[in-house]
Write a structure and sequence with these properties.
With about 240 residues, the chain is α/β, with parallel strands linked by helices. The radius of gyration is 17 Å and the shape is globular. It has a domain of about 120 residues: P-loop containing nucleotide triphosphate hydrolases (Rossmann fold, 3-Layer(aba) Sandwich), CATH 3.40.50.300. The strands form two sheets. It has a six-stranded mixed β-sheet with strand order 6-7-8-3-9-10, with helices on both faces. The longest helix has 16 residues. The chain is about 40% helix and about 25% strand. Bound molecules: adenosine-5'-triphosphate.
Length: about 240
């Protein structure tokens, strides 16, 4: 469904992604783990068209979309929940959800039904629907970022560090939502530093080190791998 071939991304003289091959099948949850600065966020931005490639290709359903702008990739079914959440701070929760559904705003009843679905997923959003997004807690903003991405009816959801800076109970809720999305058959690419939880929900996973894939395997294989445990799980 999604395929990366020798993808490279540079910031000036710094090459942040150095030739990454990766594939994601329909309905799979694929996790990318790696240390700070390994290039995980850059890779997600390259997938959704927010950073240009300096080499390689991004294929969606076999179609080369390497040169398509981000909004056209949304039309092809890609949606991203960015690191740092990226909600529109001076818009209400409800307005943020409508903005997520921008491309299908003519389908009013469909959008309203999906907002209801997101309120059922994250009841806190229903309670705070008229509140400005910038006044939400970090956890609530993360829920909103995920729900907003889902409002475009994506076939692939890209999640960049959804647990970043959140309290353990909120992280649990976020991972519960990821599990539910997985059961519903959604294809997900998850970038995380919370390696244990992220590998626990993954069908397959990649380890990224300084811009390169150094390991790949099933979530379980990497969870049980000595090197991964020592480097990312704090256990031997
Ligand atoms: P983190 O978990 O800290 O977000 P990451 O694995 O997502 O790390 P990236 O944010 O993709 O890593 O960064 C990869 C490399 O690219 C780092 O060396 C970083 O300093 C550099 N980098 C990222 N964004 C930019 C930018 N806009 N301009 C220049 N260099 C950048």
């Amino acid at each position: 469904m999604l395929k990366l071939e020798s993808v490279r991304v540079s910031y000036g003289a710094i090459e942040a992604v150095k030739g990454v091959d990766l594939h994601v099948g329909k309905g799979e949850v694929v996790t990318i783990i790696g240390a700070n600065g390994a290039g995980k966020s850059t890779l997600l931005k390259a997938i959704c068209g927010l950073e240009p490639l300096s080499g390689g290709r991004v294929l969606l359903d076999g179609q080369d979309c390497s040169n398509l702008p981000a909004h056209k990739r949304v039309r092809l079914g890609l949606a991203m929940s960015p690191e740092g959440r990226g909600v529109f701070a001076d818009q209400t929760v409800l307005e943020n959800l409508w903005l997520g559904a921008y491309m299908r705003r003519a389908d009013r009843s469909g959008v309203e039904a999906d907002i209801e679905r997101e309120f059922a997923r994250f009841p806190r959003l229903r309670e705070r629907q008229h509140q400005l997004a910038g006044t939400l807690s970090g956890g609530e903003q993360q829920m909103l970022a995920i729900s907003r991405a889902l409002m475009s009816e994506p076939s692939i959801l890209l999640l960049d560090e959804p647990s970043l800076g959140l309290a353990p109970l909120v992280i649990r809720d976020i991972f519960t939502a990821i599990r539910q999305l997985r059961s519903s058959g959604l294809t997900i690419v998850l970038v995380e530093q919370m390696a244990k939880q992220a590998l626990g929900v993954a069908d397959r996973a990649y380890v990224l080190e300084i811009g390169r894939v150094t390991m790949e395997g099933s979530g379980l294989e990497l969870l049980n791998d000595d090197k991964v445990r020592a480097a990312y799980l704090g256990t031997h």
